[in-house]
Amino acid sequence: MKAQVKDQLSLTKKEWNGMIVLIVLIILVLAAPYAYQWFHKDSTINPNEFKAALAALENSNANNFDATKTTYSAGTLFKFNPNHLSAEKWRALGLSEKQVNTITNYEAKGGRFYKTEDFKTIYGLSDSDFKRLSPYIDLPSYKSARVKVLELNSADSAHLTSVSGIGPAFARRIVYYRERLGGFVDKDQLKEVTGIDDLKYMEIKDQLTVNAARIRKININTIAFDKLRLMPYLNYKQVNAIIEYRNQHGAYASINDLKDIPILTEEILRKIEPYLSY
């Protein structure tokens, strides 16, 4: 029995050599980190040198902007008129691509800058950007500009673009809506034009006047369905009801006759009344 156990546990010389090599490798692997730390000691930081470097960096940031200099880390500063300035020059002034796109879109919709403070209202422009650029804004052609008042029912699209806040796109929309309507009775109707909200209306209203005598009236007793359908205040069903009621009851004598049509509300009648003739 002992002989069998001894035979099982006995090792050859080759096996003993292999075991010794394995043990040596394990020892070397375990000792490697300690050896590395011994030969590569971390250098200590000098507190005084670190504080001096930090102070120099803070001083550099504090003096990054200087109104007397013509260069800035974000761009090159120069005198400029913000109206119709090219995208390339906006980028040269240090504005981001998103800011440049916002300004060009603002101008495309008829926006203009009349005073330095107007530039501050641009969406996405930070206070630091405005503070940096405002000393260089030059608006010579707008400093003494007079407000031009335009009659809304007679002006064509070219004349409308001379109004501050109305670009080519807005001018086309206004003329198109005016033709469908038959003319403007009141300036407030401009709010019904696509894209003209309360803010845009406040910007342009003082530059416009309305001559209601210039509106084009329609004869409600002779107008065809297709022509009446162009009236923005009436939908398909309302136009159809007006024509059918006329066919059944005869000509309208006044706006009161139209009140007998249930589908026409008081608000609708109030809007269309100035445009009707009998």
UniProtKB/TrEMBL annotation:
<dbReference type="InterPro" id="IPR010994">
    <property type="entry name" value="RuvA_2-like"/>
</dbReference>
<keyword id="KW-0472">Membrane</keyword>
<dbReference type="Pfam" id="PF12836">
    <property type="entry name" value="HHH_3"/>
</dbReference>
<dbReference type="GO" id="GO:0015627">
    <property type="term" value="C:type II protein secretion system complex"/>
</dbReference>
<dbReference type="InterPro" id="IPR051675">
    <property type="entry name" value="Endo/Exo/Phosphatase_dom_1"/>
</dbReference>
<dbReference type="GO" id="GO:0015628">
    <property type="term" value="P:protein secretion by the type II secretion system"/>
</dbReference>
<feature type="transmembrane region" description="Helical">
    <location>
        <begin position="20"/>
        <end position="39"/>
    </location>
</feature>
<protein>
    <recommendedName>
        <fullName>Helix-hairpin-helix domain-containing protein</fullName>
    </recommendedName>
</protein>
<keyword id="KW-0812">Transmembrane</keyword>
<keyword id="KW-1133">Transmembrane helix</keyword>
